[in-house]
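Hey all, sorry for the wall of text incoming. These are the two entities for the joint prediction.
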Amino acid sequence: MNKKEFMEKLDKALAGIPKDEKKEVMRDYEDHFSIGLEKGRTEDEIAKSLGDPASIAKSITAEYSITRAKREPSIKNIFRAIITVTGLGLFNLIFVLGPLIIAVALLFVAYGVAILFIAAPFLMLVYPASVSIPSGDTPIWMVAVGLHIIGDILLVLSLYITKGFYKLIIAYLQMNAKIIRGE
Amino acid sequence: MNIQIKKGVIEVCVFAILSKKDCYGYELAETISSHIEISEGTIYPLLRRLTKEGYFTTYLQESSEGPPRIYYKITDQGIEYKKSLLKDWNNLTKGVNELIEESEKDE
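and here's what came out:
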């Protein structure tokens, strides 16, 4: 592989990062070739010692997407970070997406239960038959109010977890990127 | 060499070299390559990340031939990090070597 081929492959694989960032990265490798040539090495030798441009680009784009998700939190950026990080290896797809899906599912369940509990007293008023709880000697309205309070607590807790969850995803991705960086 | 091990090793090498003198990327790649086998291209993303994390700063210096060189200089934060990194490294290699020695004794 000569310099032109190496730079073209790198350029193509770096599509995900902004232009100015890309320019700086390309410059690093451009300079590396120039200095190597001055020292009497051939383009092929230099390209070979640099390694595979596609895997170099992968680690750069993954790193970049995590930095951005941290700086500008949004669903789009976090999703992009997941894609680029998992793009580093199919193996890691399981380790990133698996726990993520389970965690999101659990959160959804928590929200669902919270809303149902909060609605319990109202459901009981409107459709008395819809709330059938084995309550023993305790009046049913007390059970419903109790459920409502538990639902409130659960909702607040879920919101709180959701907030922390975002940070956790980023930390988790970072850890994954660290493990597989540049593979 | 296992790629994961190599990543950590390159980081240790970069800190060791830069704590002695400022270097440009090519120089670092060349120096490390002369001791261990690496893909030199991995140096630049590493330098970029460690610079972003505040361990190095960069400055430009003209060269008699070719493009101006981007020099990397270790920061105070980098020196602190290097200390803990080398401590970890020494503990690790010491532990591994002891294990190997013991296993060889048994044979």
